[in-house]
Amino acid sequence: MQYTIRGIPPSVDHALRARVRATGKSLNEATVTALAEGAGVAGAPRKRRHLGDIAGTWKADKALESALAAQDRVDQTL
């Protein structure tokens, strides 16, 4: 098997060839997958959202907190 890139260190070559045996992928596929994983771009992009982006900023509401506490007390008695 040959790479389409050059200068692969022996330890990396060994690890990639072990991955080929374990996954049944071609050497090039295993190499591209390893590169993508190393670069943090493998798979679907992960989105991180802050609740404030979706619902706005949080404001304390004593009436709401009181209603939720009352609901908790009712739920506990059922």
Sequence-ordered SSE layout with sheet pairings:
Layout: H1 10-23, H2 27-39, H3 51-55, H4 62-77
Helix pairs in contact: 1-2
Structure description:
The chain is mainly alpha-helical and 78 residues long. It is 62% helix and 0% strand. It is built from 4 helices and no strands. α1 crosses α2 (27-39). The termini are far apart. The mean pLDDT is 80.
Distance between the termini: 68 Å
Given the helix and strand composition, which structural class is it?
A: mainly alpha
Strand content: under 5%
Pick out the low-confidence regions. none
Percent helix range: 55-70%
DSSP E strands, number: 0
The ordered string of helix (H) and strand (E) elements is: HHHH
Mean pLDDT: 80
Q: How would a crystallographer describe the biggest sheet? A: none
Number of helices: 4
Q: For this entry, what is the oligomeric state of its chains?
A: single chain
Radius of gyration computed on alpha carbons: 26 Å
Shape estimate: elongated
Keywords:
78 residues, mainly alpha
Short description:
The chain has 78 residues and is an all-alpha fold. The chain has helices at 10-23, 27-39, 51-55, 62-77. The protein is elongated, with a radius of gyration of 26 Å.
